[in-house]
Amino acid sequence: MLRTQCKIMSKLFYLLLVVAVGVVFLLYQQHGKENRFNSLEIFGGDEDNQTDNQPDTQPDSQEKSEGILETELAAADRAILENLLSEVDREVFYPDMIHDSHKLFEELPRQGFLKEYSKNGCWKTGRGVRCIPGAYLAGYLKCGTSDLFDKLTWHPDVLKPKTGKEIYWWSSGRYKSDLNSYTDKVTPDNMTTSSVILDGTPATLNDILTEFSQYHKSLRYPTYTNADILHFVLPTAKVMAIVRNPIDRAWSSYFYFHDQAPVSAATFEVDVAELIGQFNTCLEKESLRYCCAHRADQTFRRRLCLKESIYICYLVDWKIRFQDNFFLVNFDEYKADQLGTILQLYDWLGVRTNLDFSGLEETFSIKANVGKYNTNNEVMTLKSREMLNDFFQPYNNMLAEYFQNDNFRSWNSQQRVTNQINLK
To answer: Which residues, listed in sequence order, are joined to residue 121 by a DSSP beta bridge?
Structure first.
């Protein structure tokens, strides 16, 4: 009898704890809500606040912020973007997040993180200091993350995780291993108080859906994302992403994920047409956020990274949660000015910028993880590129509008003639 009462009291206490934490964060959300959309004029934000909230994605973003966009966002696309942002703001439900990841929160140090390791989330254990990385190159796969990671970790204060670039813990690993296992893998032996650890897992941005569905089979899409979990645990974390022309990314990822399958430019064209049709059919009935989250129509066999290349679908969560601690890199701009981009990222990460960078510049001719999977040197058909261009154009425009960078819109007109053929 006593044991039964104790179990009931324990469950009741846990339930009350979940509700209490959920209420606290809902109040936090409401308090910060008035500042969330100020970076876009279309949401009617205060002009003074808009200047303060502009994303620093370009060295000269301040000078380019006025009149940067050459074309107004179409009314229909504007409505989709507004609805997406309102869903991101509305759908976070912290009790779900706490329930699903309660082991993670239970393992966090109750005394808080060590102040002297301010660039990461560190605490002392019986095995020495263990840390949650303070920086994340969270995406995107097949957009140059390996190259950018190698250049960033050239700096003596930007450290690779102990076991390598990609850990896959915040996405799927946290369901399979505990926090101690993660910190053992990421905390390097040469850790110092001035170091920042960089987790380079490129799936952190958007890989949550499979695991989430195990807990909430009846929900249409997640009520929280990896952005919410990481921000809950370490709100001072610095998160960056690099994005590439989504057409080129779809082509590259197709051969990457099918390296053992008989695929070609012809099968790519067929799969592109099928998946675009399925996605647009979804949009006729559902919101953009739902269609980006729904995976029933995209199996590994047909992996194109089609929906994952609608970058605006996933990036808004991270920008809204992390604000100035989120940095978006355009692959084309990085390629055009590698040193300038890397130096800007070093400054943003808070590491030393008064070093001799001649050794870093010598690495620019070395490209990490260049595509090796299109062994037959297939080239994309003109029809495939036209279909993808028409499909991605409105989402590129939304990305340009939200991040106030017209270079994302320039993807719409990029034509790689050498990568196009006509199949009869």
So the answer is: 132
